[in-house]
């Protein structure tokens, strides 16, 4: 259990895409030692977020928190994470968790978003 709250703008139905959202707390996914908790300072909203809010890619499980392109400070870092430490300024784009290993052809060729080893889409994802 963390000592901080997870808060954000919650979309509760398809009308949320029109701006009908409410500020509230939400339960994050279960913590693993592969995770990094980020205190968000900046967040973008893009077309993917609008599709998610309006169930444009299939039925969205509401309530839904959007804004998957973020910048902030790492406040909790799992023991399996080797390239980030607590207090680091970090950014997350549309994909996260590439392996970044020197023997990965995708990661070494600036194609981290295609990494077959560990890419996670950061929208509509609970893993």
From TrEMBL:
InterPro entries: ADH-like_N, ADH_Zn_CS, CAD-like, GroES-like_sf. It comes from the Eukaryota. The keyword DNA repair does not apply. Residues 33-121 form the Alcohol dehydrogenase-like N-terminal domain. Keywords: Metal-binding, Oxidoreductase, Zinc. One of its GO terms (molecular function) is zinc ion binding. This is Alcohol dehydrogenase-like N-terminal domain-containing protein.
């Amino acid at each position: 259990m963390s000592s901080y709250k997870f808060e954000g703008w919650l979309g509760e139905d398809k009308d949320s895409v029109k701006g009908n959202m409410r500020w509230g707390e939400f339960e994050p996914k279960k913590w693993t030692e592969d995770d990094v908790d980020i205190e968000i300072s900046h967040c973008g909203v893009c077309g993917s977020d609008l599709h998610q809010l309006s169930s444009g890619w299939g039925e969205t499980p509401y309530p839904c928190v959007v804004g998957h392109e973020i910048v902030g400070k790492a406040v909790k870092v799992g023991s399996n994470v080797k390239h980030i430490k607590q207090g680091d300024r970090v950014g997350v784009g549309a994909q996260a968790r590439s392996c970044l290993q020197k023997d990965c052809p995708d990661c070494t060729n600036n194609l981290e978003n295609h990494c077959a080893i560990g890419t996670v889409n950061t929208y509509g994802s609970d893993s």
